């Protein structure tokens, strides 16, 4: 497996591996303690670790070599539409022990699922129908598209505001 160790790739590798380790440790703790908030925090840390993976692997030479380039192109490492709802669910599960994930909450995850479907369609078309790069002919990773980055940022801002509002309601209710 190709990994060219340099200053940036090594620095990001340390951050990435620490995130993955803490995510796994939190997940194990969540399973043992049955604490729902630890599941959400574990998932959030895992997604944050995946967020830096394209840069880490890019500095390690993956964008310059096949088949690693295709792995970076067709694997969605940045799940911007999931980060906001997951931190909101984490806040709810942390502050409200009776919080249960239901279909009503699952609706918040639909934009992220639609983006995953979009990436799968691109992969199927490029690899099996067109046989070459059609969607990636410009050589840019779709995770870095302007529309995805900006709409993902807006989604995260909205859900972070929901989390702060939820916390403020909690604080007013329990700490009068």
Topology:
Layout lengths: L6 H27 L2 H24 L8 H7 L5 H16 L7 H4 L3 H21 L15 H29 L2
Helix pairs in contact: 1-2, 2-4, 4-7
User: What class do helices, strands and sheet pairing give?
Assistant: mainly alpha
Largest sheet geometry? none
Q: What is the string of SSEs from the N terminus onward?
A: HHHHHHH
Radius of gyration: 19 Å
Tell me briefly what this model is.
This protein is mainly alpha-helical and about 180 residues long.
Provide an overview of this structure.
- The protein is mainly alpha-helical and 176 residues long.
- The chain has one domain.
- Helix 4 packs parallel to helix 7.
- The longest helix has 29 residues.
- The N and C termini lie far apart (57 Å).
Features:
176 residues; single chain; 73% helix; globular; mainly alpha; 7 helices
């Amino acid at each position: 497996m190709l990994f060219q160790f340099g200053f940036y790739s090594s620095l990001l590798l340390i951050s990435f591996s620490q995130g993955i380790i803490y995510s796994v440790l939190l997940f194990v703790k969540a399973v043992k303690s049955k604490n729902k908030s630890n599941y959400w925090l574990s998932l959030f840390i895992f997604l944050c670790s995946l967020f830096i993976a394209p840069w880490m692997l890019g500095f390690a030479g993956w964008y310059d070599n096949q088949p690693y380039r295709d792995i970076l192109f067709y694997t969605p490492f940045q799940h911007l539409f999931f980060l906001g709802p997951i931190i909101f669910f984490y806040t709810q599960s942390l502050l409200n022990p009776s919080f249960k994930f239901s279909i009503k909450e699952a609706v918040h995850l639909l934009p992220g699922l639609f983006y995953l479907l979009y990436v799968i369609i691109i992969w199927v078309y490029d690899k099996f129908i067109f046989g070459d790069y059609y969607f990636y002919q410009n050589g840019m990773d779709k995770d870095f598209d302007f529309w995805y980055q900006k709409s993902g940022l807006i989604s995260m801002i909205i859900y972070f505001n929901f989390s702060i509002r939820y916390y403020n309601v909690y604080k007013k209710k329990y700490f009068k």
